[in-house]
Amino acid sequence: DAEESYTDYVEMLHEEDLDLVSVATPNHVHAPATVAALDAGCHVHCEKPASLTPGLVQSMVDAKERAGKHLMIGLNNRFTPWAQFARTYVDAGHLGDIYHAKCGWKRRRGIPGKGGWFTTKAQSGGGPLIDLGVHFIDVCNYIMGFPTPTSASGQTYSKFADHRGPSAASSKKSPDPATGFTYDVEDLAVGFVRYENGCTLELEFSWASNIAHEVNFVELYGTRGGLEYRHGELTLYGEFEGTSLDTSPKIKGGGAWGLAETKHYVDVIQNGGTVMSPPEEAVLIMKIIEGIYASAEQDAEVRLTQS
């Protein structure tokens, strides 16, 4: 059959008999396109972040339930071999009670599409916190077994909007009618999250910082052991017969996580089961992100409402 292309997803859903829709649009289109596809009887894979607010993500969950179809969010770090091993290791009790965690992704220079939808809050929802942060806040919570977040506090900074450089496109921070350039999001976000079980989480995400080099990381602090993922390597910390012991496991299958994500979702659709990255957990992640943004605006800790 000849391939068809559309500029309107509503028209596409009306004209085509589709089984699965992949939503890979700018963030502000995620929720309406996903809901429309589910209501049209399609399974949906939606890229991260699921949407701009917890309420919009919940509308996607509601549409999934209404349609009786599968919806998976593209939080692909869960499918990496190191994250799968770490989740199994934690579930087996090797860290004991996890009482504190850290995660982050910091770039020296890496502002995506400066002046376009990535830096336009109405379309993106924010800067690196919602762009990069969603990945590692999610995988950190996933490995911990998704404790319930109860409050969040944080601060955001926008320091590179007016700087020319490798990732700069203009000296305008506010919308420029002549060029359409917009930069009304943060380029650094820091935060602190409290959980119902007493655990806490520190986080830091930047598109641009004057640091030595780009780094992403997860650290878990437990009563029996610790875990660190940094520079693409997983290290386990513990004690053996009174001696501190560091272990660097050799994990197989390092390059196939993207294919693993796709195969997993197709298998769930064809054979049943539960998706590994459900939208219900994306609601919790968006509550954390929204809470940190709200805290930065209000200069106060924000309680996270529970549904």
Summary keywords:
single chain; three-stranded parallel β-sheet; alpha+beta; nine-stranded mixed β-sheet; 33% helix
Helix share, percent: 25-40%
Spans of 5+ residues with little confidence (pLDDT < 50)?
A: 164-174
* Biggest β-sheet strands, sense, barrel: 9 strands, mixed
Structural class: alpha+beta
With helices defined by DSSP (H or I, 4 residues minimum), what is the helix count? 9
Total beta strand runs: 12
Order of helices and strands, N to C? HEHEHEHEHHHEEEEEEEHHE
Explained architecture:
By secondary structure, this protein is an alpha+beta fold. The chain is built from nine helices and twelve strands. It has helices spanning 9-15, 27-39, 54-67, 81-91, 121-124, 128-131, 133-144, 257-271, 279-298; strands at 20-23, 43-47, 71-74, 98-106, 149-157, 188-195, 200-206, 215-222, 226-230, 233-240, 243-247, 302-303. The strands form two sheets. A nine-stranded mixed β-sheet has the order 11-10-9-8-4-7-6-5-12. The protein has a three-stranded parallel β-sheet with strand order 1-2-3, sandwiched between helices. The termini are far apart.
